[in-house]
Amino acid sequence: MRCSTRDFARVSVTSTTGIRWLRRSIQGMEHAVAGCSTCLTRCATLQSGNIAFSDWTCANAWLLIGLVMARDVNFTLGGQTATVQLEAKIDRKSLYGYAAKTIEKDGRSLSRGWLCPDGKLLRRESVAMQKIDPEGTPFDEPVTEANGEVVSLQPSSFEQAAPMESVPLKALIGFNVRDVYPLTKCTLAPGLYKTVFSYRKSIQPYDALVLVRAEDAFLLVGQYKVSTMVGLSVAYEFFDSAEDAEGEGEDLDFSMV
Amino acid sequence: MAQQILHLEFNGKSARVNFQGLPDLRPKPTVTLSTAAGPVTQVRVTNGLNPRVDTAQLRGDILIQGDPEIDFATAGQILDVDQLTTTYYDPSVPEPQPVTDFRELDIVYDAFGNEKERRPHSNRRPNLNELQPVKVGKRIPLAQALVQFVFRFNYQILHNDSLTRDFLHDIARELHQKQEVALLGAGAKGTLPLVIRERGSPYRAFLYGEVGEDETAKDRYKLLMLLSDMELKRPPHAASGTP
Fold first, then answer.
1. What does the DSSP assignment read for B104-154?
2. Which of A113, B21, B118, B186 has the fewest other C-beta atoms within 10 Å?
């Protein structure tokens, strides 16, 4: 199979291990990805630099697998710039697996859709979310306001260095972790560092902590919460009700799927 | 105020206490988008995708000559969510109709994406205020727990009278003095993960305690419930060969 010569995606591959992964995986991927011969040849002959994928299937497959996702992120610590490589996000699915709910009848898998008042059935893929103005028209460039004031989006963490400071390990208490990214090429000393992070342009970056252990390092992105010491009486006004949360033995079992 | 109740057992005594979400250190700004015509809203619309065309089979020349993948007559209709009813249909049928008497299943996949088992779907229920109290179990050094687990949520546990205040203060003092966290577990044996809300995810929970150290603050305490759903480690298929 050969697709058009148009470049659909460019992915930076700078780590030699990443290239090794890529080469090792190509044989296994060839059938699973249904990749075009152009992309596969490019991957196989890659030394370093960019791969220009010529097929969406190939590009998306590599991106999803996260083999070539490492991206440089800069932090400033004590006047010096520290560069680390950010790898693909880790979630509990990739560690323990997951349970997917499915609907079946007579062994056939059913899809979800919507039934309209007139009896018409809408397939899920026939419905999209769209932002519109009060006149019902899609728009190009809206004005973004935060707390009533016009704001512009701040650059992502890949575009500008974020300040970083060393904090005690106890700073992890009261920090709600949303995303976990493994870091490579991390030259920081073991410990915990406080910073901010935003994968994309945003109005306000997330709070973030860089945890450097002896053998590996992780970027924890999330939000700091405030807790308080309580005395004989509890000042309930302190607490926020709008928590947007989900709410053994020797080895802890985390495979709660 | 969205307080919830935790039935907690420690050293053979049990009590029902409150727990509460915590406010943000940096509250998120209220973001609105607007145009010259007014504020922007998000709606559900029909996108006009032609269900009778397999888009994977469309070649470039077909797309240049026409728009077979789009059914213009059905595109752009704003849908009122309140008037829509969720239904299930067989996607292999050309003219799909709602299907009844279906089965809900959970398909369990391992970390490599291989199917492990199929089981009837079950909705999880909160288990923090059951007849069987949540038990304070095994201890782990605080410094070890902080770097070993990913804590998704933090809740503060609060007393509701002087008896429960003494009960919680004792737990916090013991954990503070030993610099440990304690595992919390539900069920008869105290080994089950905690489920905070209806249909919620299960979490491993840890109790962190702190008491005031100087004379004026020695009656004050802080007891936090830290919820974790994963260890801080690389996936098995990425662990080898990582620089």
1. EEEEEE-TTS-EEEEEE-------SSSSSPEEEEEEEEHHHHHHHEEEEEE
2. B118
